[in-house]
Amino acid sequence: MPVGAKPMKSIPTAQTNVAAIRYYSEANNGNVKNIVVKDCEFNNCRQGVYTHHVNGVTVTGSAFDTLGHNAIAVQSHSSAAHGNVTITGNTFKNVENRVIRFNGVNAPTAITIQNNTATNCGDDSNEVMKATSIASGVTTSISGNNWGADKVVANDELKDK
Q1: Cys-Cys link to 130, which of 19, 20, 65, 154 (CB 3.0-4.6 A)?
Q2: Using the 8-state DSSP alphabet, how is residue 9 labeled?
Q3: Residue 93's beta-bridge partner residues?
Q4: d(Cα 122, Cα 81) in Å, to the nearest integer?
Q5: Going by DSSP bridges, is the β-strand pair 117-119/139-143 parallel, antiparallel, or unpaired?
Q6: 54 half-sphere exposure, CB direction, 13 A CA radius
Q7: Sheet holding 91-95: strands in order across?
Q8: Distance between CA atoms of 97 and 81, rounded to whole angstroms?
């Protein structure tokens, strides 16, 4: 590089790419079930796993590194029952937004989030996990997670117990 020249600023790959795995069902009829993501690696993408109107989502043993938005998002247009949601044994590094994001969650949904580790993750408020709402009757089993110092889980129902 010539003396006095400044390096060009590039747009990080994580901000320009889309979701690595995106299953967006137009039908909210409960017929799309049991998506399993196991032992996968997600590097330099905007989102890792994004599901919409899926009943049953499992993400286990996977590694997420350098993501520009949420690592895992379990979504729908309105409060919905998501069936069994299991997120266990994953590692997350350099996720610029939340590690896990739900929108409205209705019963009967059972959420298991265990033994995950995060380094340098969270949104501008240090949130690593959030649901827009969690209805009465949703069950959770959440333990053994290490989100990092000063990180925030927005919903009491989603905090390690």
Answers
A1: 154
A2: P
A3: 65, 119
A4: 26
A5: unpaired
A6: 21
A7: 41-45, 63-67, 91-95, 117-119
A8: 24
Return the beta strands (E) in 39-160 as ranges.
Answer: 41-45, 49-52, 55-60, 63-67, 72-75, 80-88, 91-95, 100-114, 117-119, 127-134, 139-143, 152-153
pLDDT tens over the chain, length 161 residues: 344 444 433 344 556 667 888 888 777 777 889 999 999 999 999 999 999 989 999 999 999 999 999 999 999 876 678 899 999 999 999 999 999 999 999 999 999 999 999 999 999 999 999 999 999 999 999 999 999 999 999 999 999 99
What's the pTM value of the predicted model, to 2 decimals? 0.89
Write the single-letter amino acid at 15.
Q
Q: Which residue has the tokens 């989030």?
A: 113
Cβ atoms of 89 and 117 closer than 8 Å: no
* DSSP 8-class letter at 91: E
Q: Amino acid letter at 58?
A: T
